[in-house]
Predict the 3D structure of the following.
Amino acid sequence: MRAAPPFETRAARAPQGEAAGTGTDLEDAMYAFTYHRPTTVRQAANLLAKNGDAKLLAGGHSLIPVMKLRLANPPVLIDLSQVEGLKGIEIKGRSIVVGAMTPHAEVATSQVVRDNLAALAAVPASIGDPHVRNVGTLGGSIANNDPNADYPAACLGLGATVVTNKRKIAADDFFKGLFETALEPDEIITKVSFPLVSKAAYQKFKHPASGFALVGVFVSKRGSNIRVAVTGAGQNGVFRVTEFEEALKKRFSPKSLEGLSVKPDGMNSDIHAGADYRAHLVGVLARRAVAAATGRS
Amino acid sequence: MSATGIGAAVRRKEDFRFVTGKGQYTDDISRPGEVRAVFVRSPHAHAKIRRVDTKAAAAMPGVLAVLTGAELAADKVGNLICGWMIHSKDGSPMKMAPHPAIAHGKACYVGDPVAVVVAETLAQARDAAEKVTVDYEVLPAVTDPAKAQGGPQIHEVAPKNTIYQWHLGDAAKTDAAIRAASRVARLDLVNNRLVPNAMEPRVAIGDYDAGSDSFTLWNTTQNPHVARLVISAFVGMAPEHKLRVIAPDVGGGFGSKIFIYPEEVVCLWASRRVGRPVKWTAERSEAFLADAHGRDHATHAEMAFDADGRITGLKVKTIANLGGYMSTFSSSVPTYLYGTLLSGQYDIPNIYCEVDAVYTNTVPVDAYRGAGRPEATFVVERLVEVGARQMGVDPADLRKKNFIKSFPHQTPVIMTYDAGDYLASLKKAMELADVKGFGRRKRESARHGKLRGLGYSTYIEACGIAPSQAVGSLGAGVGLWESAEVRVNPTGSVEILTGCHQHGQGHETTFAQVVAERLGIPIENVSVVHGDTDKVQFGMGTYGSRSGAVGISAIVKALDKVEAKAKKVAAHMLEASERDIEFKNGKFTVAGTDKSAAWGDVALNAYIAHKFSGQELEPGLKEGAFYDPTNFTFPAGCHICEVEVDAETGDTEIVGWTAVDDFGTVINPMIVEGQVHGGVAQGVGQALLEGAVYDKDGQLVSGSFMDYTLPRAEHLPSLKVGTTVTKCPSNPLGIKGCGEAGAIAAPAAVINAITDAIGSEDVSMPATPQVVWAALRKARPRQAAE
């Protein structure tokens, strides 16, 4: 299959002077922007470097809605959907490597992922609905770093490595806070490498309205390396619970977590869940995740 | 029963166009030269509007007009009104504040329109709307009905924000019953505010024709004729004969499209100002702030029992939030659609109900699926359940003991129930739900760490709205009869014109079933015409489960006239006396002979008029009728909800639902079952998921589907649906109505089940996991704690 040619157009609105009603209402909803569709990472990076306020389009399920609500007004969109080499799943040594533009559905249904790291497949499987899962991407999710997103928990909970056009970034260094990452302005995620582990599970308590993680806990065990990563709960986004990890190092069993909990300080609080409820759920879901990882659920 | 007649599960005729994308909704309609309107809405819950600067907006490309409340007032466009007069207990009339279609001088809720931009394209209108600058003086706001009477005054006419203080029943006798009671169940209840969210957002196209000095309004409305009446008689846009209202396919309403809204008035007015058709299409986010909300009651209620467990009295005090202005029928919802149903299915000798309706800085509140009756059912059914628990008796037995068993039954709150068998529906529901096996299931759940509960709701509603004289005496500004016209074509096919309006109910099928059976013709030969004031002379629209009981009754009445006329024609054709003509299965016969004439032949003869002289009999076959009911109808039934609560997280799963309803005669059981499913889903939505939340400044926090939870398929089990039948004695087919039952019954059943499961009554709606977890933690701190 030939890659589409580089493509640039002024989108989102009929030019002035054209007859009324040529655009659809959805197009009319957004501010005008310039749209680029590069075919190589280099082209994309150059466009990004040239256009300071540009946004990368990597699925768009977070970006497009806020543009339609006119809450975001990027003058330039760089669509990564036609960029070569950003999609796909492969095993490399003791890791599964997933291309940044791989849609959620592909990871969720991948036999390779299911056979080797089933807990990872469960993460995108829990995102949104089939429409979202077939368009939303891994790279889009972690670059956005929504505090309620699922993938950040998997990355941090597995100790993944985020690969960009410039460098490799450990998950522990990648997620910097609310919608913030270590990415530099002209940096593009190309793939994420997830180490294979002996035990892992993701437990998600869905936000009743949005379906995002009200609280999600990803646990993994690779030898003595134990990770417990929590999304949805923290005011600064995804975080690890070292107290839980220490307890699980002694024995990787839900019993090890009994009586343990996180403090409500620093937890998110909104109309759906207060800080104390979220803190409580972290404990419950961590126990359930360990139970699931050890085949006890 | 024929394959397409009354009682047959005929597939919906209208669905082909809906599922193939051929429906014609208002937004699908484009008028030549159409321009677009975008509203500028108040971002403040309560603010003085000092100045609206439209200059920059007016200079934007493509802009035809930027209009404000000042122009609206200058053009003498009248205010929107509430059409049901309620008097306070001191005899004073309700305090209706002026409600201009565009706020002038003051904004009363977030979303209150303060200006409108009309431009060539939607994008241009949106861009220009952002350039309108409004100088607000922000005032303190109040959103909670319980705090409204002590909050900042919103309207000059309503001190303490109180619209009326209404009451019903006998206070002294009820107080005496409570004093003498051996047990009193008491509850403080909040009936949560809901956002209707029909699938199709509201749309209006106003089209002024200067040539004829007349208007056409295409509008997503449930009652086009009442819209025309109000916009003509009160808003004063045009005389009725100069205003045509068309409600084409409408994608759901649930009450929210009954009302006459500012936007449709503004589109008409703006069209006259700019000389072009003006279209407005609500966005979903806008709909949260612009469509009337539902419910929002704060209630204290007490139910008295004697030593035998008989209910001896019920006392209810409710504060009802009507929002920033009084919407079209808002005043009737917490009064005559609420207080009058507080007897439930029970023989209660003494009832007293007080309702204070209040203004707050929130979106106006009006009828939403069930309208007052879900609120009444929630009060009565929660109290009965709590009473049973306090007395240690089985809640089903307590209900049985108190059921009304003979009819007609006069309640102490106006209504005369005409027919019902409450024991039958309870018994059938208990069998279908396998209540006997509940103990076993509960133990099984406990083994998996789950708390299982079972809750009943034996509800009643008043539908078939409504006898005109009766509602007139209670303050209604209109009569609530329905009209029908049966037009027989020369070839025998039939058009039914109805004043009802379908927006999901399947009238094109059910109405045709009644006609096809009566005339003995194929259902394909019947079409239903509705939703256009130029086609249907007058009608009162569709809400309150009225289309079957009232609308079909009007059709039956017109069919009686058609049959009588057709018999006259047949008598001439068959050279027999009219008295000897019999009509059955589409055939006219002469009694005692083998002479006959088919329906189609008689129809043709009516029009060619060869067999009779015009002096003797008028040609043609077309009859109309107005049917005014003599009583409300009283659908009732029993819903049983079974839940499993996750004791650690508070998450509730509905694991069983049984609905046994008595809707009287059922025309189409498939459609009725669909109505039950949809109603239950909405009721479950209210109980578990949905809640409009305002912050202290009056911002709607739950203003999108990211925060406002609608029920999804995953929230519901497979429903077990059954019916019992006692026919309604007051209308010709014995129909009671089914559209609202599920939404009325469900909330109490869910909350009764959850409170049964967790052993605490302290569960408010929506019973989200956090709410249930908090109740669990309070009730048994050790289990729920870490």
